[in-house]
Amino acid sequence: ASACSLSSSANAVEHCHFQGYVEDLPGSSVALSICSGLRGVLQMGNATYGLEPLESSTSFQHLAYRLEDMRTEPLECGTPHVDGNELSKGVSMQTKRAILHQTHFVELLLVVDNERFVHMNRNQTAVRDGMVQLANYIDSMYAPLNIRVVLVGLEIWSQRNLINTDGGAGEVLARFVQWREQVLGSRRRHDSAQLVLRRSFGGTAGMAFVSAVCSRSHGGGINYTGSSVLVLASIVAHELGHNLGMNHDDGRACYCDATRCIMNSGTTGSRNFSSCSSDDFEKLILSGGGSCLLNVPQPDEAYNTPYCGNKLLDVGEECDCGSDKECESDPCCEAQTCRLRQGAQCADGVCCKNCQFLPAGAVCRPTHDECDLPEYCNGSSPVCQSDVFKQNGHPCRAGHAYCYNGQCQHYDAQCQAIFGSKAKVAPEVCFRAVNFKGDRFGNCGYQGLGYRKCEIRNAMCGKLQCENVQTVTVFGIEPSIIQTPIAGTKCWGVDFMLGSDVPDPGMVNEGTRCGENMVCLNYQCVSADVLKYDCDIESKCNGHGVCNSNKNCHCDSGWAPPTCEVRGYGGSVDSGPTWNENDTTLRDGLLIFFFAVLPSLVLVLYVFFRRNQLRQRFYLKKRSQVDPQISCVETHSVYFSGTGNYTFRNRDALCEPFPCLPLGPPLFFFFFLVFMSGVFCVS
């Protein structure tokens, strides 16, 4: 029997989940489900209310309560208090929403562990309905940030867990994202995968990587809660927020419309994001870390209830701009029919502008690293091509580092990201001495409830050690800094203390080269063979390209995919066309040059070099018209270049005839050029 059940069909979802607002109450929001009774959440002002059926009632009674008053197990992230500067209370989420004017889409995939499935009486329908309800709640929470959270897949581990869920939260998270990269990524496209667990991790509600939403290796999180879907929604929204670049609000000068916000540490039950969260997300977008969020989920990918007006492209729709009021300013889409307006080709997407497809060859996702590769619009779709990059294990930084998930991973860049542009990696003796301690400033990750000491062979994959640093970090979050003098060298390390639900960015990045043919993975220095780099550029790409993450050739400019063997415009079968085959700009320019500019230039040059003959002929013609008997000038000799020496006698003598201008060769040359230019342009 199958150990899991993967469902990704929107047809299986009943149309019983809704979002809206309370009439005549600005700023309110409602997310409801009527699948099995009336359940949902209502936000009105600073108060948030839960609504669900009273299980013991036989007369369809419902229970309404404030989420802030719910008693839940105290789960904290452990982030310490850090004082920050005061933020003006006049800064509201409305202002932030104006900044984040473009809609971003998070393609979410939920995985339910076996313990939770058993707790739900092995009822797949009940689990599915609960997870769809969960996604609906999360989507409504992110709406003020102009972020749509779309459930694109649901996996239920119905027979057994497919990873070991024993150990600490960090260990389980590492196993889950590794399984996601190796197994789940190829089965269903998504931006973030969240594992929903029944078991707890002491005082930790969940854990996720920061700014990893578009990462193949780290785009995920783990979440624990009891039976309440409303509380679980707050936790998953919190961990997903970490994936979206959001840090904890604790100790920061943040403004929030509620007492506590979603990104406060611990389970808050809040539905509000703070100004700090929107700032963090904006930084993620500006730094290029959210490139995958511009992909509009296709109708066959969204695991949602289809209806016109939900601002998602469902089956049978050409566009969906939302409610009638939201569609008033949309020039591309008709609100009532969810059809494109007359003359419009598209309504949304990074390859759509002014209701028209961008031409083929337009860059829709530029490179941000030497290990990244660009993607281009294809001219017939508003969606950018899927993100690809150089194959993991491709050498970079002049052969001193490896490409890993689109980035050239090396120690110096990691030190500079924390300590500034002058910082560089410390000697290996620093890594060995510090990471052997097994404390918060030197370790190789977690082991149970404590830190793991690094073995000597793994020391270069533990806490990052730098030298030549500034005392003030440039990372954006103030960490604790430690200086360890070793063998005459000052070794610098950091501890960001982001809480137990966030991996420490002060650790060495995975994919970093830790020795000859060695690479860091899961805090261990292992053979680079695990990256499975098998690209022979010379034989596979004929020496004119590189292998991408799909193991296809990305050709250099001047060579054509798929094998870079013949001349072309570069790119790959995955990148989209790098040129626009319908673009006639070059052809039109050549036609104008050869049929207008070049003939005019030839004529001007001809007149310039024959100016004396033309002037003489014009002069004789004019004299002949004045006195028909005079056909010659006074006796004198005139020398013409290329025409010989002609002597004119007096007016009574018989003049020698004026020679004809040699028009044949220039005219022949002119028509030859026109003919050849026409052949060239047509070809």
Provide an overview of this structure.
Residues 531-565 form the EGF-like domain. The chain has 683 residues and is α+β, with helices and mostly antiparallel strands. Among the domains are: 66-289, Collagenase (Catalytic Domain), CATH 3.40.390; 395-531, no CATH class; 585-682, no CATH class. The chain has 13 helices and 33 strands. The chain has a 6-stranded mixed beta sheet with strand order 1-8-7-9-11-10, sandwiched between helices. A 5-stranded antiparallel beta sheet has the order 2-3-4-5-6, with helices on one face. A hairpin with a 4-residue loop joins strand 12 and strand 13. Helix 11 runs antiparallel to helix 13 (664-682). The radius of gyration is 36 Å and the shape is globular. Residues 8-12, 77-99, 630-661 and 679-683 have low confidence and may be disordered.
What's the short version?
The protein has 683 residues and is of the alpha+beta class.
Topology, number of strands: 33
The coarse overall form would be globular
| Range of strand content | 15-25%
Low-confidence stretches: 8-12, 77-99, 630-661, 679-683
Terminal CA distance reads: 62 Å
CATH class of the domain at 66-289: Alpha Beta
* Mean pLDDT metric: 81
Order of strands side by side in the largest beta sheet?
Answer: 1-8-7-9-11-10
Number of helices: 13
